[in-house]
User: Fold these one by one.
Assistant:
Number 1:
Amino acid sequence: MKLSDKKAILNIDGSAPIELPVYSGTVGPDVLDIRKLYGQSDMFTFDPGFMSTASCESAITYIDGDKGELLYRGYPIEQLAVNCDYLEVCYLLLNGELPNAQQKAEFEYSINHHNLVHEQMHFFLRGFRRDAHPMAILTGLVGAMSAFYHDSTDITNPRHREISAIRLIAKMPTLVAMAYKYSRGEPYVYPRNELSYSGNFLRQMFATPCEDYKVNEVLERAFDRILTLHADHEQNASTSTVRLCGSSGTNPFAAIAAGVACLWGPSHGGANEACLQMLEDIQANGGVAKVGEFMEKVKDKNSGVRLMGFGHRVYKNYDPRAKLMQETCKEVLTALGLENDPLFKLAMELERIALEDQYFVDRKLYPNVDFYSGIVQRAMGIPTQLFTAIFALARTVGWIAQWNEMLSDENYKIGRPRQLYVGSARRDVPSLDKR
């Protein structure tokens, strides 16, 4: 960031004016530097949800919600999703630039040769009930990795941080697939180094010892795009959790486990699961013929009916990832002979009404990426309960890139948000007979 020519002056009754430095980024709003505000004024700022607070400076991801723009290291998501595979995007997020041919080959080799997990992790899984939620399992498994890799937990060593990043990106698909297989009572499938990152995951999910498994290229490409579209999303709740957890100096596996736990929430990573549930409920109650009636209920504040998969806390325009996911949805359904899938028809009708009805237009309730991703994963045979775990798999590289950037920042210090205390003032403890 660079110091701006602008000046901000804060006037508080009875006190001398306070000058707050203003800094500018590459693009986006300027920021007021309030780091010395408490010392100068004996006051904090109040910003629930951190809606107007920049907690850090970052060079990784930029979002312009009004324009519907998402950039990874300056590259538009629309271009990356079409022209690059997920591992190229991982390299970009970690290193700042897209890899050349040699760098890509070396990075892929590193990932492919770190995708096995320690055999004792299999025993660790047995401690979970078979019907445990995959996110409960994943939170435990990721945190447990710190017990197996003592050789790469020195966060002050850049090489250790690099090795941890490779291990987490490489092993996360194996852990997610293991959680799925465990829930089904099927044997774990070991990764194959000759397959792509996405192809390997699909094989680990759906192969059995009974017969050979051939990866469907359309599904492989679709899953790769899902990963790319979810790889990072600036300072969202789970990323901020990883940064805050990591700011204490904890090991990377613990920090990422914290991110997994945060992502589990239905207002964050569970959104596509909730969206698919909404579509299934509409289908069970009349299907496309009842879409208009459903949308009228959405407009009625007293109905309690919510429209899932539309609108976004950041995007006040069309989510740039949604159009890409819609295209992927059509490709997958066509490849699987599911062009007449009733949920897809429902989705298209919901989108049509939302884009035409003035109520939704005025509120800028456009479809977001979750609206179609659930349909795609369902068509691929991925159970609804696993959707959020796959989101965590995709977001791992973003978390790691953000964590590494934080530790490399000369201004890095342990996070310590302030509060506006509204409890009782100081008082004395009465004796028991006077309470």
Number 2:
Amino acid sequence: MKTDRMMSIIIVLLERKRTSAQDLADMFEVSLRTIYRDIDAIDLAGIPIRTIPGVGGGIEIMPNYKLNHNVFSTSDLSTILTGLSSVSDMTAKDTLTNVLTKVKSLIPPDKEQDIILQTQHIHIDLSSWFGNRNVQSYLEMIKEAIELQKLLTFTYHDRFGNSTQRTVEPYQLVLKGNRWYWHGYCLGRKDYRVFRLSRLSDLRMTSMSFVRRDYSQERLDVSTVVDSPNETVTLRIQQSLMDRVMDYCSFEAFTEIDDSYYRVEFPFMENDYYYNILLSFGDKSECLAPAHVRQGLRARIQRVADLYK
């Protein structure tokens, strides 16, 4: 991947001092054009690169620029390793292996044990307990399509159950909350769209390339794929249900009724998704208000009961 290759180029330049673009292209099995693009990106990132023409020339990091083991503090390195390790859980096993190895090589021997201990303080596991088993393979395919600038085709299922065939230019992957999304230009809609990975099926990377648009990686608006609660309902729940309910609201929303029950102001929106959350609490929860939500729950419970007559 591009990030892995760029970090490798930096390591090579630090070790060899100067090397040719052709040697780098051969080393990483990419074109000269790709190497020059990477070099420009490294330079823009703040590491000054210069090109020396003629015999004995090549590409090098400016001599007055120093990058050594002391650049990163113990906290810096442990944070980098924690982040890279969590991302590697959701990618191909060898995708970030080289990056992790090279970052670890920056650890001074006298700080190694301290950094390992700090890294173990936090473990970020981005993989889901259950759900769409295609998510990880889809992540890899979308990442590859973004790098190679290849069109993606797939069937998309919206929150209302409607299915459409899409052909999209992929631009960015987004992890928001505990869900993966990606941003791309939909050729059918002739506009940018946000897609939730779990709603994709039959994802394919085509052989058709696209010319990258003037895309701005700004904060994405995912309101088209996520419903946000706009009211609250009052629940009476058993104490044993607190752990689950606190996945949706803070402890400040709870008021103790007695040793066994709590009253909760629960976030809600008038749609099937939120009704299904309330129904999932079973007989350990009762909706006290408002009346229309109680009626909505009663109607849904009756329809389920009718199925088992």
